[in-house]
Amino acid sequence: MKFGQWLGFICLIMALYVLWQIRQLLLLIFMAIVFTVALNRCVKGLQRLGIKRGLAILITLLTSLAIVILFFIIIVPPFIEQFQKLIELLPQAWDLVRNNSIQWRQQFQFDWLPSLPNLTDLFQQLQPLGTFVFSNFFTFFSNSVAAILQLLFVLVLAMMMLANPQPYRQAFLKLFPNFYRRRAEEILTLSEAGLGNWLLGIAISSTMVGLFSGFGLWLLQINLVLVHAILAGLLNFIPNIGPTASVIFPILIAVIDAPWKIVAILILYFIIQNVESYWLTPTVMAKQVSLLPAITLIAQIFFAQMFGILGLLLALPLTVVVKTWLDELLFKDILDKWDHGHNKS
Fold it and tell me: Which long-range contacts (CB under 8 A, 24 or more apart) does 92-97 make?
């Protein structure tokens, strides 16, 4: 390799190292882009109705703010009240689960299975964690403040990009060679469309899952329906892991109320998840970038391992964007043309 090539290679390694060191900042910027894409779809919809962009942005932001305020006024107070009741009922549910497990072990002679600890033993096991949390209270408090500041940073950055997205778009395109910038802009447009379709699809899907869960649990007369429905809808944003976690709390409540309802809840959530996976998602996400279930799970594990909880939350939008760039840049622009040229020769 020549000196210039070695210098370019060293610069590439240094750039990758710097990017890795600021990976959390890059994730926050990507989250701001996700918010910007979501809001920009609403703005473009208003522009198609003949409204100027400045007024469309103002209407979108005011409508979003009104929705958030109404959510905190109407939904949050009863949710907090029911969630507190849920926390109060969890110890009783745990005792019932433990007693039933002991009876089943004795009845079916499953002595080889480990028994569940009682609450006293469980609290003793968790005591070191409590001591650690108390001793590091300032650290946890600082992290909470940092999380709030990061959220404010994301929201402010999203509004800045929404107000005038073109300069940011052009700055990103300058990272590509001059001959490829037009093609990169096309891929960027496809990524934006794929991300927007995913956002719309997952919002509709999660809302329907929450409504179906709430209605089904209401028919089964499960207590604290609002909490279970909202958790089911929110956790649906995390495929594979979220739906599994959302069924735990209604099952614990059913243990206290009527154990036979456990089977009914499992059947209900099984039906909801199959309707969501095989009918609702393909219908509302018909234009979305198709993601295989195995790819989705691998992406969640990969991004969670690499970037922590924020990587897990952003795993699917990151996968949508990465898949679009791989399809267009790697496969269509490099591998497909390379194969065509090889066959031609």
Answer: 92/256, 93/252, 93/253, 93/255, 93/256, 94/119, 94/122, 94/252, 95/119, 96/255, 96/256, 97/252, 97/255
